[in-house]
Amino acid sequence: MLKLFHNFKKSDAMLVAIAVLFIVGQVWLDLRLPDYMADITSLLTTGTDNMKDVWIAGGKMLLCAFGSMAGSVVVAICASRISSNFGANLRERLYLRVQSFSMEEINRFSTSSLITRSTNDITQIQLVIVMGLQVIVKAPITAVWAIAKIFDKGLEWTVATFITVLLLLVGVFIVLKLARPKFKMMQKLTDNINRVTRENLSGLSVVRAYNAEAYQEAKFEEANDELTSTALFTSRVMASMMPYIGLLLNGLSIAIYAIGAALIHNVAFNADMSNMMEVLTERGELFANMVIFMNYAMQVVMSFMMLVVIFILMPRASVAAERINEVLNTRPTITDGDKEDGIAGHEGEIEFRDVSFRYPDAASNMLEHISFTAKKGQTVAIIGSTGCGKSTVVNLIPRFYDATEGEVLVDGRNVREFTQNALHNRIGYVSQKAFLFKGTIASNIAFGDNGKGPVSEDQIQNAIEISSSAHFVGKKENGIESEVVQGGNNYSGGQKQRLSIARAVARNAEILIFDDSFSALDYKTDRAVRHMLQERCADATKIIVAQRIGTIRNADKILVMEDGQIVGQGTHQELMQNCEVYQQIALSQLTEEELA
């Protein structure tokens, strides 16, 4: 957990110093109270007639109490500020780290776990900082200072206090030993309930269509019950500390009074009756010492009790810190190269040289010995059965993953040599699942930084025309400023695909990648979009992954894939003559007359 405190800023360190200063002042004021109480006790036991001294001592006690309260308010304000700043800084670091992750790291942690680590886990640490700054610093200072003050007041009382503290620490150790494994489990169960909830909300329409509400409810209840039972166990274990601490405090009070009574009795029993005034004075001093010791002993035990509160919070925060450090210490497998420019004469060119690829932890390669070249302005299509590796091929171009063997070249240069910004600025990418961000149509089309300055309204309108989106965008009351809700759920699948295509086109990129991006379009719109792409984006190299023969039959080159390998390569006519796999796909979709 200490590693995380490297995230403190200088301004936060200043606030910590101010807080510590006020804590020391607060402790000093708290420990002055018993001294004034002792003065009052001594004045009363000696039978003083000067009540003015009693009132003065009482007034000083009130000033100390108010001063301590003011100090605690300042410390609380500083702690809250430090905690908020620390949480914000940590969330930013986590977000930036996750942004640098490849799909391999994202899949390793899972989305639900990363969300929990960025929210719940950081909250646990913030809670410890708020409480800890007020307790972890204050309690040891109070305990040491108070022990120093009472050490010479009476050996018997000191031994009783140390025994109480020892029993308290033993109880804390046992509780933490039982609770820590459960706290680690709780954070994982929080991940799980987050996953189940997100899954249910994302697939709500499917759940309702299949009357699966009861099934989903049972799944949620199972996850919820598991989390609840674990939380109850830790709460019960921690709750057992309170009566135990109460027992120790009451036991210490009884012990101090019993020891004090015995000492006072011994003074009276062994006293010389001829010197009664000295006896009374000694008994008064003993009584005053007992009152002082009681107050200081309570301060010592209360200090350790405050530490117990932190010990209760610490295990879960410690587990949360480990989970956060796990993300922060993960080094992305995709690292930047140092090249910004490609090789002259190879602009817009894509080449795969004997590329093989295996997903992390997979038993075998997904791709085997893939080789092809796409020249500038060409349209290269990839077709094949589901799961044959089509999307995996195009995901290697923008480096969502790195090839296991072989080379992927863009503009004549290995993609590993480019900085990621430079590589992505060359590419307009449309994913298999069309995704829109909350905002407007314009903000979605002009999304991101293409390295060429902001996308103008004319570019947005041009992209809308190319993607055949003008018809439905024109019907919107606010046009390109129409609202898009999270995930684009206020648009149909075909509309989302067309806006995603518009987003890629608006980048004016030299390479356009369409990963099965025409599947939700009707044949007429599909043909219109491809025609506009060919006409308006003639200089761009286009890589199209598709299932429909109609979408790819006019491509300059078609790659036919099966079981992670290219089994055919050529134009539509060439493949119809020499590639059996392509013939089977074509005849399963179109008649021989249509193909002819």
UniProtKB/TrEMBL annotation:
<dbReference type="GO" id="GO:0016887">
    <property type="term" value="F:ATP hydrolysis activity"/>
</dbReference>
<keyword id="KW-0472">Membrane</keyword>
<keyword id="KW-0547">Nucleotide-binding</keyword>
<feature type="domain" description="ABC transporter">
    <location>
        <begin position="350"/>
        <end position="588"/>
    </location>
</feature>
<dbReference type="InterPro" id="IPR039421">
    <property type="entry name" value="Type_1_exporter"/>
</dbReference>
<feature type="transmembrane region" description="Helical">
    <location>
        <begin position="127"/>
        <end position="151"/>
    </location>
</feature>
<feature type="transmembrane region" description="Helical">
    <location>
        <begin position="244"/>
        <end position="267"/>
    </location>
</feature>
<keyword id="KW-0067">ATP-binding</keyword>
<dbReference type="Pfam" id="PF00664">
    <property type="entry name" value="ABC_membrane"/>
</dbReference>
<protein>
    <submittedName>
        <fullName>Multidrug ABC transporter ATP-binding protein</fullName>
    </submittedName>
</protein>
<dbReference type="GO" id="GO:0005886">
    <property type="term" value="C:plasma membrane"/>
</dbReference>
<feature type="transmembrane region" description="Helical">
    <location>
        <begin position="287"/>
        <end position="313"/>
    </location>
</feature>
<feature type="transmembrane region" description="Helical">
    <location>
        <begin position="157"/>
        <end position="179"/>
    </location>
</feature>
<dbReference type="InterPro" id="IPR011527">
    <property type="entry name" value="ABC1_TM_dom"/>
</dbReference>
<keyword id="KW-0813">Transport</keyword>
<dbReference type="GO" id="GO:0090374">
    <property type="term" value="P:oligopeptide export from mitochondrion"/>
</dbReference>
<dbReference type="GO" id="GO:0015421">
    <property type="term" value="F:ABC-type oligopeptide transporter activity"/>
</dbReference>
<dbReference type="InterPro" id="IPR036640">
    <property type="entry name" value="ABC1_TM_sf"/>
</dbReference>
<feature type="domain" description="ABC transmembrane type-1">
    <location>
        <begin position="17"/>
        <end position="316"/>
    </location>
</feature>
<dbReference type="Pfam" id="PF00005">
    <property type="entry name" value="ABC_tran"/>
</dbReference>
<feature type="transmembrane region" description="Helical">
    <location>
        <begin position="54"/>
        <end position="79"/>
    </location>
</feature>
<dbReference type="InterPro" id="IPR017871">
    <property type="entry name" value="ABC_transporter-like_CS"/>
</dbReference>
<feature type="transmembrane region" description="Helical">
    <location>
        <begin position="12"/>
        <end position="29"/>
    </location>
</feature>
<keyword id="KW-0812">Transmembrane</keyword>
<dbReference type="InterPro" id="IPR003593">
    <property type="entry name" value="AAA+_ATPase"/>
</dbReference>
<dbReference type="GO" id="GO:0005524">
    <property type="term" value="F:ATP binding"/>
</dbReference>
<keyword id="KW-1003">Cell membrane</keyword>
<dbReference type="InterPro" id="IPR003439">
    <property type="entry name" value="ABC_transporter-like_ATP-bd"/>
</dbReference>
<dbReference type="InterPro" id="IPR027417">
    <property type="entry name" value="P-loop_NTPase"/>
</dbReference>
<keyword id="KW-1133">Transmembrane helix</keyword>
